[in-house]
């Protein structure tokens, strides 16, 4: 094109964002600025979406500053994009400061905050924002309700789940299949598998997401046989499984020790359904073989990944070595694992436990010294119990005693 105006450049930037190529979108934006074309608010929204996709908070802050100078910072579209960018870049405090200053908020802005707080590990705050949204007279859409259900699944409050289910029925959202899948997942994570099954069976139109969620629910509760049976029922219903389905059913096989079933499903995944194995599938197979004591099979799967094995895949093999008390293989696996993620304290703790079981106290000391020298700290575990609709969390090592009526 001989002449390119701001609309043309903005269209290219938006196209790259929609294609998932954030870095190319940012490159085009920088080229646009270099040739002297000034962005408008539409351009800024697309560039902010690219920054969120690339998790580039430095560039995101620059664009935010430009929006302030242009006087469009508090425009609904721009402000929402800035909030979403900060949330996805783990800067939730900056996101909330802008959100509270926004003179007008639509359902998209509220949804961005609800989703963002959950992504930043703040599900309780996310649910509080949803309550504020309702109190301010804003009606959520189905997409927002999925984000709310996701937030609730992170806190796993049983009473709140029942309340939300009632709200979904009253609001007519319960007939949306993707909302039903999120609700099913929520019930499953709250330990209420019977309610999850009822949601599944009462949903008339079941898509691959709903089937996959129910398979995952059975697997999470250690019901591998039921997960495999549901997978076979799904196939019989002419629903084609996707990549997520295979992750769910292979993980269920792993947790229940169904080695033969896992082998068969993994074989048909590519041969019959054309789904190429990704690291999650291979991690599930390593975990499956490792739990069954078939270390050589687990190692074979990793070798077939040609150096693409992720840290959590090596961790699954290391955990299997611990179960089999195989210190020799453990050391080789740990070496690869710590190269990939040298700052994950859990891997060092796992290796320490392996050395301790084998009474290699000098190796235990060396590993603990490595943790100290790197300044790593173990994240404390906690449990939670719901009493009278209030969740009480108990951190490992706490000496506080609660009196409950």
UniProtKB/TrEMBL annotation:
Keywords: Repeat, Transit peptide. PPR repeats lie at residues 5-39, 106-140, 207-241. It comes from the Eukaryota. The keyword Repeat applies. The keyword Transmembrane does not apply. This is Pentatricopeptide repeat-containing protein.
